[in-house]
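Thread: adenosine-5'-triphosphate complex, take 2
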Amino acid sequence: MSRTLTQIMAVTSMNLRSIPQRIWTSLSTVIAIGFVTGVLLAFLALANGFAATVSGTGSPDVAVILRKGGDELSSVLTREQTLLMQEAPGIAKSADGKPLMSPELYVVIDGIKKSSQTKANLPLRGLGTLADQVRKGVRISSGRMFRTGTNELVVGRSVSKQFEGFEVGKQIRLASQNWTVVGEFEANGSVFESELWADVAVLQGLYQRGSTVQSVRARLQSPDSLQKVKDFAEADPRIKLDVKSEQAFYAAQSKGMSDVIQYLGWPLAIAMSFGALAGALNTMYASVDARMREIATLRALGFGGLPAFVGTMAESLLLSVVGGLLGALGVYLFFDGLSAATLGGNFTQVVFSMKLSGDLVLQGVILALVIGFVGGFFPAWRAARVPILAAFRAG
Amino acid sequence: MSDALIVLKNIGKRYTRGKQQVRIFDHLDMAIPRQDFVAMMGPSGSGKTTLLNLLGGIDKPSEGEIAFEGKRMDDLSEGKLAAFRAANVGFVFQFYNLMPMLTAAQNVELPLLLTKLGPKARRERVQTALTIVNLADRARHKPSELSGGQQQRVAIARAIVSDPKLLLCDEPTGDLDRETADEILGMLQTLNRDLGKTIVMVTHDPEAARFAKRTLHLDKGHFVEKDLNA
Ligand SMILES: Nc1ncnc2c1ncn2[C@@H]1O[C@H](COP(=O)(O)OP(=O)(O)OP(=O)(O)O)[C@@H](O)[C@H]1O
Ligand SMILES: [Mg+2]
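Output below.
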């Protein structure tokens, strides 16, 4: 081992072992850094959970067909357009040769949140008769599927968990008619679990939509068939509809929202970092001042400034890593998996869980280390330049 | 003069304090023979510590030359001076200046971390140094578990562990009672007599000065004659 390294290690270990002498100021720095990291990670976990839920919703071999420029709420498709689309090549067929398409309605109803007892919008989707063959991965987890032509509906798992009165067997009123919740479904944690589903034809009558729908879902023969369907919709002037893969459709929706959360989280965390940085600087300057005579004595004995610099940096980085990990632990213990609901792309509630990941923890620890690095650097610089004459003063 | 360990020639030393210049030394000459034991006395502010710092390569003169074993050292770089101190000078401070986190043995070992010695050789040297100051049985104690006199003995062991020729002591007994002080002074005397260490010791205490071979009186930056025994 080189001599310089031996010196650095000796001084650093001395430095770290002296932390208990400055326990309160050190602890306050650890806590401040932990708090900043925690805030950042809470936001990132929120964005991450949201993105996971929304992007997990779309499948690449399902096409979403909407009016040009429309979203699911504002789009209107006529019966003629819907029928013409049935001729599109590239759409998968059922066993008896029917194109696997589900004309769908998408309306908003009121729900009362269990947690806050406040009103929130819930999406109610009308499904075509072939919907269960168009969307894969949906499973009735209790009760049964609604029957075509009746006032029955099924609710997503998140809806029954977070909103009042949607348990299986419950009656609800929609547009002054009685409806029965006959089942609850799971859809791999996707956005669909925040929806209620019923028969599209019954909803058309209830909401006076005549024969129009808002969107059509179609199962593609393969993800590559999307282009054929697109070209077909473009070519016929009577159709003129937007065709996207469901995956792209939800990815676009989630991007806006998780961007907002992230872009809120980082600036907030960075603003708070300045507070934590001031604390770290303070602590580390205090540490250098407390060790002034020791550092000067070592210099008098012939030690260089480098060990004092490294020792101070090591102390600061150690405090910040501990703070960062405590912040991450706090988020993990108190927030990870916690359900949150937010407005999805259509001003309806999307229910999702905060989700911490190794990657996010790493980002948090990096932020903590940056605070520790800057907060340690200037005091370490002072430590490296302590005048040797300080060794001769009382203290 | 030829056998002098350290020679100061025409030394000037100024400090600038704000706009004011403070002259500590002007045209100061001095020679310290090998194996000398000098006590340096003088009123507070007369420049004793400053002189010690010049001798030890901690501070540099504003004018003049300092030579150690015939080699000039006043023009060395910071790094070279640090290496010079590590190789040639042992310091003993008034307030011991031990590292509170380290045991006596670890404190004594510090100067050896600047040498090429491996862990085993270092351990042996530490053991020897602690034995010389009669503290072999306290090797694992922290400074806070030792008396003032014992702490100063650890500091002396640290000062001699790398076997430097020159020991510089700034009021080494200033913080100790008479009996303990005499014990420490006796130890310095032994180091001078038996191990041939050249010692320069600053003290305010005439009793302490009696342990040295000779006493220099510094006043306003100059050596003055004074007969102690008169
Ligand atoms: N770094 C410095 N900057 C400016 N002035 C200094 C500095 N160090 C010492 N002085 C001044 O130089 C003079 C001599 O100081 P020095 O410490 O050498 O005195 P001393 O003889 O050791 O005194 P004491 O017996 O009180 O320890 C004093 O006037 C002191 O104020
Ligand atoms: Mg002094």
